[in-house]
Amino acid sequence: MNNEELLVIYPQKRKSEGRERLDQVLEYALEGLNAEIWEDMRTLWEDVEETRPTMRFRNKKILFVVPLGKNGVNRGYYEVLAWLRTGKQVLEGSIAGLLIDAESELFTKAVARELTVAANEAGCAFVGRPLVEGTASLDNYIVQASNMNTDKFGAYLKSARILTEQLLEFAWEKKERPHLLVLHASNHKTSNTMQIWKEVRAKIEDRIEIQEINLRNGTLEDCSGCPFQMCLHFGERGQCFYGGAIVNEVYPGVKWADGILMLCPNYNDALSANMTAFINRLTALFRTTRFYDKAMFAIIVSGYSGSDLIAGQLVTALNMNKTFYLPGNFCMMETGNSPGSAIRGEGIGDRIEKFAEKIVETLKK
């Protein structure tokens, strides 16, 4: 049994009818483990006071537990969110997962996405597939219940236990000569995102082997939702029914890579069509290959605002669904509303240096 301590941050933990299920799930998930449940969110602020920083939440294994009730609101959770958004690395070196429960069919994933982005900006990493969520009906466990030969609540219990064990056992492995796959769909001449990447690349290419793939090249078909067995059939061969650049270049690149870097300009507060198509088409490969041992990074440039929305989309799609490891401070978020403006931003050189070192620090021994 792993004796490492798991720190549980549980805002608004109190006995009520709506909390009985969540407390039961948490008790099952923590049985026999060395865990401390942190209930007083007011004391979090001691960790950011310049005169006496406690650093008690750094270099920890953390489980965020959030009860949402019927309306998706937990006032204690907003205290946690405010603490994470102080701009200080209060969770530096820590790695986390999430257990979120609601008395409705909504809000669990939205809160998980918001919390993950905020914690990541505060230095926290997340294991692949870090979210265990319970909706009111638990219909989100129908498939898992069948696979686990149990009922929906039994699948909820088992999923929570699997997550806590995964958190305690997880250890990220660096490589002597790491591989980084860089995906983009931008024009080299005018793209702010590509200009920033060019500067980042110059700082890491002597230490990391890099492969770039432009998703603008050729026709990139989006996923059309083939039947499961057909998708599995092609996935077992490292292929997809629709073929093309995804099968010929991207799938081999993903298998080769120890980390992927997504270059993401903000289009209408959403990922570009080609980036979305890549994520959707990745499903065929995912049928037979999990990505827990691959890290994800991103450079996001918005014309005005909203880079955190793009970061959240990447988190839910690639970390929560496709199991990529999310290192702390996984993305660089900038603003540039005309060609070349992002690379001229105040302090951009320092931020580029810091992000480049984050990539190297994460991937290279």
Please work out how many helical segments DSSP would assign. 11
What structural class do the secondary elements suggest?
alpha/beta
The number of E-state strands comes to 10
| Overall CATH class of the largest domain | Alpha Beta
CATH topology-level fold name of the largest domain: Rossmann fold
CATH architecture of the largest domain: 3-Layer(aba) Sandwich
Strand order of the largest sheet: 2-1-3-4-5
Which stretches are low in confidence, meaning pLDDT under 50 for 5 or more residues running?
none
Molecular shape = globular
| CATH homologous superfamily title of the largest domain | Flavodoxin domain
Q: Quick one: biggest sheet?
A: 5 strands, parallel
SSE topology string: EHEEHEHEHHEHEHHEHEHEH
Can you tell me the number of structural domains? 2
Q: What is the distance, rounded to the nearest whole angstrom, between the alpha carbons of the first and last residues?
A: 28 Å
Report the helical percentage.
25-40%
Rg (CA only): 21 Å
Q: Could you write a compact summary of the structure shown?
A:
The chain has 365 residues and is α/β, with parallel strands linked by helices.
Which SSEs are present, and which pair or pack?
Layout: E1 6-9, H1 20-30, E2 35-38, E3 61-67, H2 75-84, E4 95-101, H3 108-121, E5 125-134, H4 142-148, H5 152-169, E6 179-184, H6 192-204, E7 209-214, H7 228-235, H8 245-256, E8 259-265, H9 273-286, E9 295-302, H10 307-321, E10 331-335, H11 348-363
Helix pairs in contact: 1-5, 3-10, 4-5, 6-11, 7-9
